[in-house]
Design a protein that fits this description.
about 280 residues, seven-stranded antiparallel beta sheet, eight-stranded antiparallel beta sheet, 22 strands
Length: about 280
């Protein structure tokens, strides 16, 4: 009788933990660009993440979107980024035994990253991005200190190389492009706000943390960013310091908390000495 009860208990435990184990086995310890890390997959909702990782140690709202949040799992060496739509839009590896299929992990040397993936797009000091792979690496003292997984370039149309070219473009979104081209790729804007009596409107795309300045003819006249997902070729992005902006674009007097460079076609809003918003406009 005791043996039967024991077997029954063992069977119950197998059934209880079998699903979770199979999920972990499916993802293993792999960091898969454009897909996920182990059992955490891009696009999963909060319940699905907690089903495999449990409750996070810490939850922090995104500085650019209070509806987005970062969930930290110290035990697993992960941080999961949930977008405003409630789905996972990124996973950061900060520790643990996670590794890419090619064997790159925390502590791997920078030379190995370049040898396997190429030079990539430099995203400021010590950060390299591989948009077509959905992978990015942070490097400190010549070694990988974190790995970030996000949607591949082809899964995020119009973001392109994510470069900010003052007076011209942001990724593949260009000044002079019809706003309908963006709507065809991303859907309708989350909200549209009239900009005074100018006939222009601001089309906001919440998930991309991007706004389009659109004239009465439906043509894009500028772009407004509130995300570090975009960056200038010199490494300036949302989150950069005022001094970093000065170093690249030159010193100018702040106007209403903003640094304006009309001749270059770019402006920066500052919050507590750091860039909180970037606007690209035609050069004057």
């Amino acid at each position: 009788m005791l043996k039967k009860a024991y077997c029954s208990l063992l069977l119950s435990l197998i059934l209880l933990f079998g699903l979770s184990s199979s999920v972990w086995a499916a993802g293993g310890n792999l960091v898969q660009g454009g897909q996920g890390v182990g059992p955490v997959r891009l696009g999963q909702n909060l319940n699905q993440v907690q089903a495999v990782l449990g409750a996070p140690d810490k939850v922090q709202a995104s500085p650019n979107d209070p509806n987005s949040k970062l969930m930290y799992y110290k035990k697993h060496g992960l941080a999961v980024f949930l977008g405003s739509n409630g789905g996972v839009i990124g996973v950061t590896v900060m520790g643990g035994n996670w590794q890419t299929p090619e064997g790159i992990k925390i502590g791997s040397d920078a030379a190995s990253v370049v040898k396997i993936y190429g030079q990539g797009l430099q995203r400021g000091q010590g950060n390299v991005n591989y948009a077509s792979r959905g992978l990015a690496f942070s490097l400190k003292q010549g070694r990988v200190s974190s790995i970030y997984v996000f949607k591949r370039e082809e899964d995020r149309p119009l973001l392109g190389d994510r470069l900010i070219i003052p007076g011209q473009r942001v990724g593949s979104i260009k000044i002079g492009m019809p706003a309908s081209s963006v709507a065809n790729a991303w859907g309708n804007a989350d909200n549209i706000t009239a900009m005074g009596s100018s006939g222009r409107s601001l089309y906001r795309y919440k998930e991309e943390a991007l706004g389009l300045i659109v004239n009465s003819n439906g043509i894009i006249e500028g772009m407004v960013m509130e995300t570090g997902d975009f960056i200038t070729k010199e490494g300036v992005k949302v989150g950069s310091s005022k001094d970093e902006v000065f170093k690249v674009f030159g010193q100018t007097n702040p106007a209403n908390g903003s640094l304006i460079y009309e001749k270059q076609g770019i402006g920066f809003r500052l919050t507590q000495g750091r860039v909180s918003q970037i606007t690209v406009l035609p050069k004057q």
